[in-house]
Amino acid sequence: GIIENFQELRAAAAENGAVFTTDTDTEVIAHLINWELDEGNDPVVAVQHALKRLEGAFALAIIFRDHDNLMIAARQGSPLAIGFGDGEMYLGSDAIALAPFTDRIVYLEDGDWAVITRDGVAIRDGEGREVERPVQNSVASSLLVDKGNHRHFMAKEIHEQPEVVSHTLANLIDFAARRVQLPELPFDLAKMDRLSISACGTAYYAGLVAKYWFERYARMPVEIDVASEFRYREVPMAPGGLALFVSQSGETADTLACLRYCRGEGQHIASIVNVRESSIARESDAVLPTLAGPEIGVASTKAFTCQLAVLACLAIAAGRARGHLSAEQESELVGALIGVPRHMSSLLHGEKAYEELAHALSKASDVLYLGRGLSYPVALEGALKLKEISYIHAEGYAAGELKHGPIALIDETMPVVVAAPRDALFEKTVSNMQEVAARGGRIILLSDAPPGETGCEVMASFRMPAVHPFVTPLIYAVPMQLIAYHTAVFMGTDVDQPRNLAKSVTVE
Hints:
Elements: E1 2-3, H1 6-15, H2 26-38, H3 43-51, E2 56-64, E3 67-76, E4 81-84, E5 89-92, H4 95-98, E6 104-107, E7 113-117, E8 120-124, E9 130-131, E10 135-137, H5 153-159, H6 161-170, E11 173-174, E12 179-180, E13 195-199, H7 201-217, E14 222-226, H8 227-230, E15 242-247, H9 253-264, E16 268-273, H10 279-282, E17 286-287, H11 302-321, H12 327-338, H13 340-348, H14 352-361, E18 366-371, H15 375-390, E19 393-398, E20 415-419, H16 426-438, E21 442-447, E22 460-463, H17 472-491
Parallel strand pairs: 13-14, 13-15, 15-16, 16-17, 18-19, 18-20, 20-21, 21-22
Antiparallel strand pairs: 1-2, 2-3, 3-7, 4-5, 4-6, 6-10, 7-8, 8-9, 11-12
Helix pairs in contact: 1-2, 2-3, 6-11, 6-13, 7-11, 7-15, 11-12, 13-17, 14-17, 15-17
């Protein structure tokens, strides 16, 4: 975590004779506890006193020399779970971390701290009162936290997408009736004047796709924000609106802070998470889970496409409730969603071609991604994937913005990845491609149209299945992932754990 007042605490500890061996804020905590022990307090009291002096967001596990049957845990802002074994106890960030050892989990709440021995746990709240927190049976399975026959977790998770997207859709769709069937919601979508979406990283791009869907098919105005910006904007919100939060882990600190702000503004709270026991899920009025299973690779893949699947179903349900989608139109859109897993599988069978592209792409120092309409968020996500795991600088742009700056970067060394489904905006995207080609840019085309239709010479072309425009983001996400993955593998980076990144950003 982050101890926000560590400079002040460090100075005070140094005055008391503490000698620091690192520059980390974490070391301050150990010195505070040690000072309390030197004052004659036992470990439990020492920790209690030290915690009262800490400001920030953190999850702590504290052990003591000469107390081998004692561990003290504390949570403020960052997630922390206690696992129950047979004559043994565990501490971890979430159920997935504990899955190889136990499925009996207690989640600490903000301000909680716990005294743990091999025989059990005593939990206290921030005031020091003993409290009971429910023991839950976690659905996380240690069998899923395995690479199988794949070289990396990310590769496994890319290939799991047809299956997990199918499971997610089956949870929300009546396949026989070709109709979206959501669980009962504690609010009426027909009466919502507008929708506010907050998320971070890849989840934000999923929300950006959803903005297009809700506005086009449900005629519902949507405001979408990066959570780290929204929480500080003091947004005026009319009570009774709908706020939607998207997070793989359900513990993203900025997204959780936005949720609490919107709760205070009288909004209905809905969330899309991959961990049902998470903080965001527990604090929501309605939870629509993604059934992606544990996602271990830091760069999100299957969680992203499952988020899109849930958001697509929610947009269809909103369109129906608000009278903007007929039964026939809903059936058409649902039918397109039902076909997504099959199209994903066919794309994965052509993976070899992406390996070949990776050799050429690895030599680039910069890569530009372009898309229009629904393909614009896909371009943003493609660029994020490449920079996350290959460390190649990449930027995603709306193709129509090319002339407003990015075109200055294009020369014969610049690869440009273009997502260009043959939709209503195809001709305009082709026009942008021709501008790139005229300046020597090396085009990598993702389209259901053959390269000849664009009139451009391309560096590489990947033929996409011809699908309803509604589902193109789910389909085009797969080649974006494969391009990034194989480029990173060829360059020898740590694909599953890229430098400086964490799977779940639980601090600000």
